[in-house]
Amino acid sequence: PCYRNCQEGQPMTCVYNFTVGEYVTMRENFCTSCTTVKGLLGDAAACRAPGCIAGGGRVRIVSAVNHQIPGPKIEVCLGDRVVVQVTNHFSSEGVVIHWHGTHQRGTPYMDGTPYLTQCPILPYTSFVYDFIADTPGTHMWHAHIGFEEADGVFGTMIVRRPAAKELHSSLYDEDLSEHSMIVWHWFGKSTREVLTVSKYTGTRSSGEGLIINGLGGLEAFELPPEEDTFDTMPREVFTVEQRKTHLIQCQERCSLLNRVKFLCLYPINNTSKSCVIAHLQGQRYRFRVIYNNQIPCPVQLSVQNHSLLVIASDGASFTPVPANSIMLNGGERYDFILEANQTDNNYWIRFRGLGNCENDARKVHQEAVLHYADADEALPEAEPTYEDAVATGMVVNPIGAIAYNYSGNELTYVAELENVDVEQAQNISGDVNQIIYIEFRNSMYVSEDIVGPWPQVNSRTFSYPSFPLLTQRHEITQDMYCTDEDVCVDGSFCACSYLYDIELGSLVEIVFIDLGRGGGDHPFHMHGGQFHVVAQNVIDGDISKQIVRELNEQNGISKNLGGPLKDTVSVPSSGYAVIRFVADNPGFWFFHCHITSHADMGMGFVLKVGDFDEMPYPPYDFPRCGNWEPGTEND
C-alpha cells in the first residue's frame, strides 16, 4: 500500500495483515498450471495463484504467511509507520516476526525476538507490530522461532529514501519493485524433520536446492528420477530493456545526430521535443538481493555476460565496486547495478552453493532469467550447470577463503569497502570503552542427549529465559543469565542466557574468532543496530582466542575505521573479524549466527545496552508470560 516515489516530510501509515499457518505445496486443485517443460519459461503467475505454493515442486508441509512463499512484500519510505497484525493459525506453536535490518529505535519491544523482546504469539491469538521504518535499505522479515523461517515464514522489506537523498541514485535509472530477489536455501521436505534428525544423529545435512522469489525446482540427486523438478518448475524472470528504441525514434525525426553526446541537434521542422536526449547505452537497474540458509551454504551470485556494480549491503551504501560476482551468507543483503547493454536475448542469473551445498554427491545451484524485453520469451540457450556458475574476475565478500578455491579471482573483502553513508555512520575513531572477544568452536558432549557437534560461543550454548528480558526486566534475577564471570567447567555442557552488559553511549569493539579450519564462515547478525566492519583476516597456522587477543592488544591488526556499515558479518573460518559500533540504542539485543540450524542450537548471545530506566517501556497492557507455580495459600 505504500510503494511509491518517496517524498521528504510525507510519511504514510502502511497496514498489513499476516495470517501465519501450516500449509502444503503443489496442491493439485490449485497448482495445476504451475509446471513447465524443459527449455520453456513456464507460467510463473500460475505458481502464485491463490492457494498455490510452488515450494520447489515437491509436495511437502510448509509454514507460510497468507498462503504465500515468500510472504507479502513490504515496501515503504523512510519514516513511514508500519502496522502489521499477525494472526497465528498454527495449531500448536507460537510465532514472532523479526524485522531484520530495522533498528527499532524507541520501540525495542517490536523487534520480534522470543523471550528477549516479547512473548511468542500463541496459537489462535494475534499481535500488532507497530513501528517506524527507521533504517533505509534492503531488509527482510522472518519468523524467529525454531524452523518456521526455514520452512517459509519470510519476505522482503525495502525502506527507500526520497530520491534526492538516495545515495548512488545518479548511477542507475530504475529502482523497481520487480527487481528485488529473495533467495532461500530449500529442502524437499520439512526443514524441522531434516535438521532435527541431523541434530540427534550427529550427521551432516547436505544442501538440496534454492528458490528465488519462491520459484525454481529441485534436483533429485540420490533420490529417484521422478523426484527431479529442476527442469519442470518455472523460474523467476527479471525483465530489462535497452534504450536503443529511443535512439531510432530520434534518428527518424532528426536531420543530424551528435553521436558523441547522443543528442538530437536539429529536429526536423523543429517539431520534435521528444528526442532531445537519446542514450545509446542500456538502461541501468538497481537490483536488491536477500539471502538466507538453514545450513552452511553460502552462495555466489553472477549474471551471464554482465558485470555488476556493487553499491550497498545490509541497508548502507559504500564506494561502488565493479565486480563479476558477489558472495552472500545467511542474513546478508546486497544491492548492485546492472546495465542492460548486451544483445537482446535471455541470460542466466546464477546462484551456486558452497559449503554443505557442494560435495561429491550434490552440487546445488539455481538460476533465474534476465530477460531483455525485445527478446523471445524463452530460457537462455546454454544448459544451466553448477560449473558454469563458477565466476571468474572480481568477487565481493569472498566467503570461506581458506576452504574454497578463488585462484581465478580478484577478491574484495568486506573490511576493504569504504562507507559513504554519512547519515548512518558512527564516530568509531575514539578510545574504545569495551572490547569483547567472541570465540567460535564446535564441541561434542557425550553426556548430553544430543552429543553434537554444538556450535558454541565462548564454550556456551545460548538458552532462552522464561520471559522477555526487555518487557519484564524488573523480574530478572541474577541466576537467570550468565556472563563471562560465570565459569563453565571444562568439558561440561554449559547452557545459559549469555549476556554482555554495555553502558549506553559507549564505543564497543567486538573481535570474533573462528577456531574452525576449512569450514564455512559463520554469518553473525546483530539486532537493534549496525556496526562498522573494520578488519577481517585468515590466520595461517595455530589460532586461538589468546593469539588473536595478543595480536589486537599489540596493534597487530590493521583496521579500516572507514569500513562499511553492516548488521551481518561473515567471520572467516580459521580467522577473525573485528567490528566497532556506538551502543546508542538501549534494549536487549540478540547477536547470533544466522544459519538457522546454528541459531536453533544456541549459537548467540545478548547485548544489554543501557540501564533498565534508559530503555523504552512497552505499552501498559503489553503481553506477559513466564513460569507459574501455585502459591502457599493454595497448598
Automatic annotation (TrEMBL):
Keyword ATP-binding included in the entry's annotation: no
Pfam families: Cu-oxidase (PF00394), Cu-oxidase_2 (PF07731), Cu-oxidase_3 (PF07732)
GO terms under biological process: iron ion transport
All residue ranges annotated as the Plastocyanin-like domain in the record: 60-162, 258-373, 491-610
A cellular component annotation (GO) from this entry: plasma membrane
SUPFAM superfamilies linked: Cupredoxins
Record InterPro entries: Cu-oxidase-like_N, Cu-oxidase_2nd, Cu-oxidase_C, Cu-oxidase_fam, Cu_oxidase_CS, Cu_oxidase_Cu_BS, Cupredoxin
Keyword Oxidoreductase: yes
Entry keyword set: Metal-binding, Oxidoreductase
An MF annotation (GO) of this entry: oxidoreductase activity
Record family assignment: Belongs to the multicopper oxidase family.
Protein's recorded name: Laccase-4
Organism: Zootermopsis nevadensis (Dampwood termite)
